[in-house]
Amino acid sequence: MFGVVFPNRSFPLDISTFTQIDTFHWVLDMNHFVGEAYDQVKDMCIFLLNNLTLPADKALAVYVQSPGSAFVYCGAVTVARPSAVLSLLWPEPGNQGQFLTADTAPLSAKIGVSVQDLATVPSLDIAADKKIEHTALKVGENLFNFMQSFCGVDGSKLIVPMDILDRWFKKFQERAKRDPDYLKGFTL
Fold first, then answer.
1. Is residue 134 packed enough to be buried (19+ CB in 10 Å), middle (13-18) or exposed (0-12)?
2. Measured on CA atoms in the order 102, 103, 105, 107, is the torsion positive or negative?
3. Are 83 and 48 in contact (CB under 8 A)?
4. Which residues form the Hikeshi-like C-terminal domain (predicted)?
5. In this structure, are residues 34 and 28 in contact, taking their beta carbons and an 8 Å threshold?
6. What letter does residue 146 receive in the DSSP assignment?
7. Is residue 111 within 8 Å of residue 94, measured between CB atoms?
8. pTM value > 0.70
9. Do 47 and 38 touch, CB atoms closer than 8 A?
10. Rounded CA gap, 141 and 159, in Å?
11. pLDDT category, 98, cuts 50, 70, 90?
């Protein structure tokens, strides 16, 4: 039905790597895949296989779950969008103080995949939207910190030089040209 690739971490994996929960749900236990370093797996490419006939009104939705947390939606693929690279935005781990006995396995992170009605899927690009929002906030924080270093205070107002935006943008561009990894620091 589907396959996945974890960029720079795996070869293509098919549905047999996942545990099928029922007709429409599959789970990949990250303990078996990467162990406790699950949060270092930042991206996943999911794709529909050529012979799959997913109805046009259905989506294959992807969720992530940190140990002890609820599943969080990351994105989806559809017949109209048969593949996607999704950012895996792992939630904070939940209650780690749960009592474990010899019969219970330790909590682990999971990736869930489910067939859902397309109308119930929030947004196909929710992770991309969050990444853009995060990047914008980091750039704004960089500008604010730059402005603070040149400003004076007049009561409750910050007073900055008129050319502060030009100076910041020029410095920002020069740094990005010198260090290609500089801009990567602004993304998740």
1. middle
2. negative
3. yes
4. 134-184
5. no
6. H
7. no
8. no
9. no
10. 17
11. very low
